[in-house]
């Protein structure tokens, strides 16, 4: 039944393979190094039409001198009181925005270094830990996912090197592809300087407690990794009915890359997914991590849970009824809760009611997905929160995160 589809793919791929290196790859040793090292790791970047613009962006950062740029000097250096560390901040490379024009029902925002630094100045943020947790734009397409993960890691690493005292980054994994992810994350941490790994709540519809990810987490445990989890679109399986994937192979043209893609992005209700679904996604995946005992068994992992847990706190009693002492121990000692979004008015109270110590709260802005006009109201709810005293609010912005990243980031 699939023969015609397989044939179309093969013809498309073969014509790409003979074509060799993509056009427009910058003639720069950095681009050649990236292509060469990827190939040595079994990742052929050549077939994809996002490779050339990605390499152009990486090469541009590698040669960027912030001091000589027209970014105002007072943005490059943090103000003396800019002691906040932002653990939930996203980098959106231009080439990535092209292949992911929207996410969670919201358009992908334009990201520039200057606007990032302006945001940091506005919020007294000294350091942002950047992440792009979702490389599998082309669902079911393993080679594309692995290629995007590699290019994102190289891209964010190159950017971080421009201002290493202002930025760190979380590695992008290639999940759901476990072997490739183990290799990619290890490389990003050991050779590119990532300080942890960013995952999404589900990877092609599988939540993080799924047994298929057990070997991945065992590898993260060996690395004593910090795992930042980000909500994603929920996916609905469509019983293996084929969908036509977006084409991403060079040359771009009539031949579409067709792939057996049994998922459909769905929205359970009519509201923007980034608002309605994301909070349930966080709850679902941490419930899954608890019920599969991943949280309890892997005692060297630290988790950053976004949006002070999303809707997780309100379901713990009902849905997590076995092994509760060990689960609560994990929540109390190895889970850290970021403030991203407007979460401090009422939601924080639900979390703290589980005797979570305020010393495990971290600051997150969700910039630039939370745009400038919403960042201030979000921070106002922190400033006026009845759940924390001033010292606890201050610690949430800087001391707590230093405990978590001790030995990984020089603050
Ligand atoms: C995926 O990449 C491998 C290694 O480069 C290659 O052998 C294989 O044909 C590719 N598969 C597809 C479906 O593109
Ligand atoms: C840092 O100083 C600036 C300018 O005086 C002020 O607007 C800002 O609120 C201060 N930030 C913190 C975290 O105290
Ligand atoms: C920074 O603050 C100024 C003044 O409130 C505001 O106009 C601007 O949009 C903010 N920029 C960012 C990137 O947050
Ligand atoms: C992943 O690696 C393991 C062990 O290294 C191996 O047994 C397994 O076959 C690999 N899986 C795939 C899909 O390549
Ligand atoms: C890649 O190819 C697709 C389909 O042919 C096209 O829509 C897309 O714009 C191309 N992307 C780039 C970055 O050229
Ligand atoms: C956790 O440990 C239990 C008991 O040793 C074991 O049965 C279970 O498979 C483990 N699960 C994971 C995800 O490590």
UniProtKB/TrEMBL annotation:
A single GO molecular function term of this UniProt record: hydrolase activity
Any one Gene Ontology cellular component term annotated for this protein: cytosol
Top-rank taxon, per record: Eukaryota
Gene3D superfamilies in the record: Metal-dependent hydrolases (3.20.20.140)
Keyword Signal set for record: yes
Signal peptide: 1-20
Amidohydrolase-related domain location: 85-405
One GO BP: secondary metabolic process
Keywords: Decarboxylase, Lyase, Signal
Entry's family note: Belongs to the metallo-dependent hydrolases superfamily.
Protein name (Swiss-Prot/TrEMBL): Amidohydro-rel domain-containing protein
Source organism phylogeny: Eukaryota, Fungi, Dikarya, Basidiomycota, Agaricomycotina
